[in-house]
């Protein structure tokens, strides 16, 4: 089995057809078709079902696809390992929750970029569940997510500690008032957000049921709608303090057991720690005591 055959197979699955895969791979359609047929013959299984709009994976193809991604990632990692001479350089893929990316990351990334100018840093945001999956599937080198994270394939270490606060419109004076709010709307990030799970538990502890959950893709969208009185949310204090000082929202302190949450840095246990990653880990560790002291 050749690597190029697996890459061709993955491209067909990703683009949904042989013609589109050929264009993405900058080759001719007949070459893609030939490689697919050779791979199916070698494996003794049909990998795609053809239809008028392209192709779909068979059950065998669905089982093979994650392995194709892992093989490609391992080859890319082997190349990075070989080229790593101790100087941070090359691609470094970092994931972070929207709230972390908004206020925690910028000062770290400015320092990191100055110290490691040859690193090609790519930052993406998402929910904790989404980011963990991308780390597991080798699409991210590390991610900053809400902890704790318990997974046999992942290793975590503390990065920040956040205080979560209930955020409401300025005219709502206290979390207990929520219990009497009819038709309560709760504004959250996409499914898989750990703060959403925490807020569900907080509302349940106060006997609040039947709330309507509204999903948003951005922090600004959530804050703007909370300020307008659309609903309530749960966010780290550091993210919403400026809006509270401006009188746009009201913050409600929660008991420590409900409020405290750790942001952890996760990576695959078996992943090679490149010079770029090692430099970032060192920077997080150096700044961690300063962050804790500031809070």
Account of the protein in words:
- This protein is an alpha/beta fold.
- The chain has three domains: 3-82, Orthogonal Bundle (Arc Repressor Mutant, subunit A); 87-160 and 262-294, Periplasmic binding protein-like II (D-Maltodextrin-Binding Protein, domain 2, 3-Layer(aba) Sandwich); 162-260, D-Maltodextrin-Binding Protein, domain 2.
- 48% of the residues lie in helices and 23% in strands.
- The strands form three sheets. Strands 3, 4, 5, 6, 9, 10 and 11 form a seven-stranded mixed β-sheet that branches. The chain has a two-stranded antiparallel sheet with strand order 1-2.
- A hairpin with a 2-residue loop joins strand 1 and strand 2 (54-57).
- This is LysR family transcriptional regulator.
- Keywords: DNA-binding, Transcription, Transcription regulation.
- Residues 1-58 form the HTH lysR-type domain.
- InterPro entries: LysR_HTH_N (IPR000847), LysR_subst-bd (IPR005119), WH-like_DNA-bd_sf (IPR036388), WH_DNA-bd_sf (IPR036390).
Layout of strands and helices, then pairs:
Layout lengths: L2 H13 L2 H8 L3 H15 L4 E4 L2 E4 L1 H25 L6 E7 L1 H18 L3 E7 L2 H9 L5 E5 L7 E15 L16 E5 L4 H12 L6 E5 L2 H9 L5 E4 H9 L4 E3 L3 H4 E9 L6 H20 L1
Parallel strand pairs: 3-4, 3-5, 7-8
Antiparallel strand pairs: 1-2, 5-11, 6-9, 6-10, 6-11
Helix pairs in contact: 1-2, 1-3, 1-4, 2-3
Pfam families: HTH_1, LysR_substrate
Keywords: DNA-binding, Transcription, Transcription regulation
InterPro entries: LysR_HTH_N, LysR_subst-bd, WH-like_DNA-bd_sf, WH_DNA-bd_sf
